[in-house]
Every structure is written in C-alpha cells, then in structure tokens.
Model the fold of this input.
Amino acid sequence: MEQVCGQVNTALESFLPGDWQVPGTLKEAMQYSLTAGGKRLRPLLVIAAAESLGGSREAAMPVACAVEMIHTYSLIHDDLPAMDNDDFRRGKPTNHKVFGEAAAILAGDGLLTHAFYSVAQASRRYHVPAEQTLAIVEELSRYAGPCGMVGGQAADMEAEQGVTDLDGLRYIHEHKTGDLIVFALKAGGRIASASPRQLDALERFGRNIGFAFQIQDDILDLVGDEAKLGKSTQSDVKMEKVTYPYFAGLEASRAEVARLTAEAKGALEDGGIPDPARLFEISDFLLKRDH
Amino acid sequence: MEQVCGQVNTALESFLPGDWQVPGTLKEAMQYSLTAGGKRLRPLLVIAAAESLGGSREAAMPVACAVEMIHTYSLIHDDLPAMDNDDFRRGKPTNHKVFGEAAAILAGDGLLTHAFYSVAQASRRYHVPAEQTLAIVEELSRYAGPCGMVGGQAADMEAEQGVTDLDGLRYIHEHKTGDLIVFALKAGGRIASASPRQLDALERFGRNIGFAFQIQDDILDLVGDEAKLGKSTQSDVKMEKVTYPYFAGLEASRAEVARLTAEAKGALEDGGIPDPARLFEISDFLLKRDH
Done:
C-alpha cells in the first residue's frame, strides 16, 4: 500500500501540465492542499479495484488522481470560515489560513474542474475506451455533485442548525463520504472492464466500508489521539454535533464498524471479484486505524 | 434568438433529474441563480455554432445548458464577500445575500459538478459519439479550469491588489471571459463534427467576440444605464480597477469593439463555415447591446 501511495503522490505532484499558464498563487494554493499528505484512501481504492479485476495500474492512475483532487477540493471548501471554519487540517494550517479566502475558493474550483481533465487522460494516454471513460465522467459528476457529495455537505450544514435523526445522519454519511468511495471503486472497476455484477459487488463493498469509515472517524473524534490525527478531537462534542456514537454508544459503534467491514468483504466474495486481497487489506486497515 | 433563448430556459428549468434526492436549500439556491435571467449568450453560441455546420439543436442542448451552469457558478462564487463582494446581480440580490455564504459556495460547487453530467447527456440521449463528447469534457475542464476561467479570475483578484498593465489585462480578459466563449463555439462545432479548420475558425471567431464583449462591458460600466444593466455603473472607477477604456480612452475602445467584431466575422468566412448567419447576428447584437 505504501508503494502505491508513493506512486499516487508522484502523479499528483505533476498534476498540471508544465506548459500551462496558471497564475502563481492559484497553482501554489492548489498544490499546497493536494500535497499535504493524507491517507490517499480514494486513489488506493481506484487502483485496488482495477487490479482486483486484472486492470492496469497505469490506466487507473489518472482517475485515482482525479478522485483525490475532488476529495481535496471538498476539504478546502469545507474548511472555509462560512462552512466549518477550521484552522488546521492534517496538522497544517488550512488553505484559506495560508492563501486567504478568495484564493482558497478558487483553488477548490480549480481542483474540482481539473479532476475531469485528469479523468479524460485515461482515454487519451492509456487507451481506455471512450465509452468507459465517459461513463466514469458521468458517475463522477453524479457521485460528487448535488445529489452526491455536495448534497451530503449541504445536508450536514443544514443539520448543524438543529435537524438530525438517525435517518438524517445516514443521508449525510452516505453522500458526504460514501458516494466518493463508491465512485472510486466503480471507476476502478470500469477501467478493468468490470461486468455489471462485479460493479454491483464493488458498490456494495464501497457502501459498507464508506459507512464504517465515517463511524470510525466519529469514534476517533471522541477517543482518538490528537497528535496522530493531526487535528483536535472532541470537536463534534464541542459543536454539539450528532454522530453515530451519540445515538448508539461507543461499544455498539465499534461493533457496527466490524460488522460493516465483514459485510463489505462478503460482497466481494459473492460478486465474482477474482483477486480481492488488496481490497480486503484496505478494509482491514480502515478497521484498525487510529488516524 | 428569442425562441432559442426560451428553449434554453426551459431546458435549464428541468436541469436536475426529478428523482434525484437533493437537499431543499441546495436545489433552491442552484435554481435561483440559474433561472435569474441573463442573456444566455454562451448557450446561444453553442447552438448557433452547431447549426452553422448543420448540427442538431437537440444534441447541442445538453452542452448549451452545461456552459450556462459553469457561467452561473462562476458568477455566484465571484460575487462572494471574499471575492468581489457584490450584493446585486441581474437586478436581483446575489445568491449569498439570499441563501447565505455556505449555501452559495455549495450551489456553485453543485452547478460546476453537474455541468459535466449535462455534457455526458449529449452521448447518452442524442447519440453524439463518445469520442466527441469526451473531447468536449476535456475542453470544458481545460477552458473552465486553472489555466482557463478560474485562472483568469485568480489573476483578476491578484490584479486588484495593484499589478496591472495592458498585457495583464489581456490575460485576464482572455481567460476570465474569453475561454468559456471559445469553449462554447468549439463544443457546438464538435457536436456537428466540425473539421479541424472549422474548429479553428470558430476559435478565432470566439477569441475576437470574447475580447469585444469584455471591452463593451467595461464601456457600459463607464457610460451605461443602471436600469438596463440591472447593476450599478462606475464600479470599476470606484474600485480603481484598470480597464481597456482606462488605457485606450472611450472612443478608441468603441473602435476596437467594431474592429474585433469585423475580424470575428472574417474568421468564419475564411474558415469554411457553411451557414454563419446566426453567428453574425449574435456578434452584431453584442456590438450594439446596451446591457
């Protein structure tokens, strides 16, 4: 996983063609957040899904980079004063703290837009058929858009003004975090010409680990180690934010993470994924992580 | 032109599939700005370019809507307090004035992301070949992205802090306004299977009317009628913003608009566009407009 992560980081560092004229501050602001580290979970999922079906890592890389650009833009915009108003992210000052709000908004817009350019490179450079790549474009815009990740963030902002029950919380988790994880897996599958049954298995795997991932995040916010996390804990409690552990308690939440992980693995076994070992590894890593 | 404009408005009103679950405020905020009127210049250009080469209006419509979504998102984000801090747009309160800053940022993100979904519909619904549609995706992300429209806006923000000469101003105009106009024309051409020579003619037409359009905007800001414009004039003067009339004077600016318009028309005549009448009509409209 570390080796793949290094390859993703290298690809992300050269994400803008060198002969493109991009204003200095904008490029710097985009690069700052894109290279600020992080687990690279979503790119790893794209690549692991492609490889689980015998697809090529090279062909998966442009989409792996695209999904990280989308994730990074969403963090930059979520951290803005008008949104979650966060000063630190991954142990470093947030984008708007370094470059100012206007540059942070534009850096987010730039990364979001450029993600689609990166997806298109799968066809241009690695001969993924145009139909497959276009299906990935359509799914990225759907899973990251108003009924996907942006919708989840909007519901989260509305919920902070008081309206949340367990259904509302599920909606937020499903879209704010889950949708992009599901996208990553299905896009990896598409690059390796997955069958509809295999795409369905990857989607069910993604839904389950996505939800487990978010519950684990909420658990870590409650009992995690600030130094390892690179951000302050107990922020949900301080913000009086309703989370899964708030409804179910800590022990039941931990059990739910384990149950969802087992369910995720089962989906791959039932769904005819020839080589799921790397995807199993990622789901185990998520289960045991402390940051 | 009015008839086409009405068809674009109808298409934009139903831009989100009805069975999609989108949080109420987000959907409302997106629709508010998307249906707030405006000239619909960019969609008209997509359709006129497609029809100038014998392409179908139906097949051009998804891309026409997409370019208006991109344009609208850019206005929403540009109006934010951290950017231009505008309270009115097209005679109505700006998005963040009605829905708040967080919702306005997300409405912009949602429109930007959904634009790519809309482009993909050209293939799904109207059988535009996947290669053509993917080329449109790639160009949209390039012309609207960090080295295109977002880059132009970033350069404009930097320039407001004092650094501008005529070259800097050209960079801003070329990217902030020009790139999306050029995209609209080339995308319309691609839908009608334009040859490379025809695409080149459409690009030169777009570059010229794009620059003319921006100079005309600057002229109207200086001497226009506030009621017709739906916004206050002399804002550039008040902001001490450097504009083309500032460098060249009012009369020379007017002459330049006329010269660029003539050059634009010449590009179509030289470039083998079979039926350029509608495109000529749009460039004449831009030349004579008072809002």
Q: What stands out?
A: The mean pLDDT of chain B is 92. The CA atoms of residues 30 and 107 of chain B lie 5 Å apart.
